[in-house]
Amino acid sequence: MTSGTELSPQQLSTGGVVVNVAGYLFAPLDRLAERREELRSLCKTEHLKGTILLSPEGINLFLAGSRDGVDRLIGRLRSDPLLASLETKESVSDRQPFRRLLVKVKKEIIAFGVPGVMPGTYTSKKLPAQELKQWLDEGRPVTLLDTRNDYEVRLGTFAGAKPIGIDHFRDFPAAVRKLPEALKHQPIVMFCTGGIRCEKAGPFMEQEGFRQIYQLDGGILKYFEECGGEHYDGDCFVFDQRVAVNPQLEETAATQCFACQHPLTVEDQQSEHYVSGVSCPFCRKLTGDAAPVSLAARRAAIAAVADPLPGAGPYLNTRPLNVPAEYDRRTLIDVLCGLHPHISRAEWLEIIDKRLICDQRGPLTAETIVRGGQRLARLEPNTMEPAVNAAIDILAWEDEYVVFSKPAPLPMHPCGQFHRNSMTHLLSMAFPGERLSPAHRLDSNTTGVVVFSRSRQAATMIQRQFEQGTAEKTYLCRVVGQPAWEATVSRQPISSQPAAHGFRVVDEADGDSAETAFRVLHRCANGETLIEAVPRTGRTNQIRVHLWDLGHPIVGDPVYLPDKQLGNRQTLTPADPPMCLHAWRLTFQPAAGLSPVTHEAALPAWADHARHKAP
Asked: In sequence order, what are the residues at sequence separation of 6 or more whose Cβ sits closer than 8 angstroms to the Cβ of residue 399?
């Protein structure tokens, strides 16, 4: 590293030696807001630019500035006992690679979204750079797994490495589950830019059954620093204006497209489709050259991840436990008993003794004092989830949204006994490059039309229509008995919280307002009736509760039984007769300025008479 006098802001922007520093440490941090202000003030004083991320799980930073400024910042951080072991990697450049300073408080210092993976407590075995080089020199049989995004891999990677094949690190879990089963018994060395992604990727792969996982300590940049470019082909993508560095940690001629932000090699920049500041060859591919993916291919993707069902297990399930503010400074055992009174104190003590309740630092004891807002995790080894019907169909795949026909029984979200065997989890596995977000929900036992948004903008637009009741929903129900009416409207309020038995019911005193219109479509010879239901509000279990209150519960409903009785279970099994509630038709506006669209799901056999009564 080059030492020298402190550079002025002008020098940092126009030339001179600029020190680039990157580092991270998983450690339980407190006083996050206070730390943010302290670090922001120091960085401004020292004219440092870049990003510092703070979270309850630790710190991640990538900054640039003068030698003295960087040294003062790192010295301040290491003076904190919680951050004393912070290690950093450095390189130099002749210009400031960052445009501004950002100091942020986040939930995670590296977004992963898998609860229970806590590098502050456990990481996979780390392999020093020199030892990896020795392995490769000797030709030792090992799989090199590149955990980075595809666009990073394209600029360079280790010779013979296997890219995981993702566009964002949040897609890593789904990609791992598609790896060959044989790899679970072979040695794997995973690597990324600086090592931080592997801190979470390694433990996750071990949870998935991979038995010989190593992570390259310090990542590619540390390897460059200690070993140069042997066994590595190309450059390493970095997340600043330098775009990429070579094995000598020098900035290369790679650049990024102004339009799509794809990294571009020198060869890419020589393409006839490259126009500096306007477009590149990858823009061309994104705007129409690639063949569209057929619905048949997408349906096949769903079928592939559902056989076998991902929750068939056994696997280690991790459930989040968040401490409410009212339990601040209480013991762990008191918090657990207060939050989950249906589990006895003796059972909770047994779970704690098995080291199955933990935080970022590791397993907790019964007498541990916890804080309001603290995030805990409950580990459930050897989890096996009940079977579901995963025959999800795709009715429409548009630029802004996707419409599915949901089978039953299938929970939409992880809940209760279900996590991996849920609709959102199956879709995340089938389409790891998508960010599909449900605009509304259907009960586990309900079939029919459900819409997912494909972008944040679409989610805001479409979800608002369901929240405000402007989306039009039509359901079909087969009910017990024959109503005295041909059409009616129920306005009975529904309890805002589950009652003691765990189900919603009519609550005339404190319930939320609700309204459903019903119309008889067909009176069946066996004494049942086919009914059309149009909910004008969106309360939980609204249609089921209103029909039950009217004395005509839905056929096959395991909760709302005849004669105002309540059942003792929520979710049916695939072997049970169906609950006869079907989301038939859905109308909504997909985007501002566009006309409303209507989608229908095919009629189930029990609702066939509806086709003759459609308005």
From this structure: 454
HSE-up of residue 229 (Cα within 13 Å, Cβ side): 12
Give the number of C-alpha atoms closer than 13 A to the C-alpha of residue 101, restricted to the C-beta side: 17
pLDDT band at 595 (very low <50, low <70, confident <90, very high): confident
d(CA 443, CA 421): 14
Q: For 458-486, give the secondary structure using H, E and C.
A: HHHHHHHHHHHCCCEEEEEEEECCCCCCC
Range name among 65-79, 185-199, 308-322, 402-416 with the lowest pLDDT average = 308-322
pLDDT above 50 for 2:
no
In 369-438, which residue ranges form alpha helices assigned H by DSSP?
423-430
**C-alpha to C-alpha distance for 435 and 23, rounded to whole angstroms:** 29
What is the chain's mean pLDDT, rounded? 88
Residue pLDDT, tens place only, 480-521: 999 999 999 999 999 988 776 678 999 988 899 999 999 999
Q: What are phi and psi of 27, to 5 degrees?
A: -155, 145
Q: Which residues are catalytic?
A: 192
Which run of H or of E encompasses 301?
A: helix 295-305
Separation of alpha carbons 237 and 288, rounded Å:
27
Give backbone dihedrals phi and psi of 330, rounded to 5 degrees, phi first: -95, 160
| 174 CA to centre of own chain | 10
pTM confidence score: 0.57
Q: Are the C-beta atoms of 313 and 385 separated by less than 8 Å?
A: yes
**Nearest CA among 320, 312, 348 for reference residue 332:** 348
Q: How far apart are CA 493 and CA 160, in angstroms?
A: 64
Nearest 5 degrees, angle CA 69-CA 248-CA 222?
A: 70
Which amino acid type is present at position 272?
E
* 516 in Cβ contact with 474 (< 8 Å): no
Nearest to 352 by CA among 331, 371, 322: 331
**Sign of the CA dihedral with 130 first, then 132, 135, and 139 last:** negative
**Stretch 455-479: mean pLDDT:** 90
Task: With CA atoms as reference, report the closest residue to 207 among 48, 318, 47, 64.
Answer: 318
CB 211 within 8 Å of CB 200: no
Nearest to 24 by CA among 188, 173, 239: 239
pLDDT band at 260 (very low <50, low <70, confident <90, very high): low
Q: Which domains does the chain have, with CATH numbers?
A: 9-105 (3.30.70.100), 125-252 (3.40.250.10), 315-383 (3.10.290.10), 393-612 (3.30.2350.10)
With CA atoms as reference, report the closest residue to 217 among 70, 80, 56, 89. Answer: 89
Q: At what angle do helices 67-78 and 32-45 cross, to 10 degrees?
A: 160
Give the integer Cα–Cα distance in Å for 272 and 536.
56
Q: Which two tokens stand for residue 322?
A: 């968040």
Say how far apart CA 552 and CA 606 lie, in whole Å.
16
Rounded CA-CA distance 116/316 in Å is: 10
Average pLDDT of the residues in 264-287 = 73
For 31, phi then psi, to 5°, come to 45, 45
Write b or e for each residue in 33-55: b if 16 or more Cβ atoms lie within 10 A of its Cβ, otherwise e: eebbeebeebbeebbbbbbbbbb
Is the distance from CB of 479 to CB of 555 less than 8 angstroms? yes
CA distance 519 to 533: 7
Flag whether pLDDT at 14 surpasses 80.
Answer: no
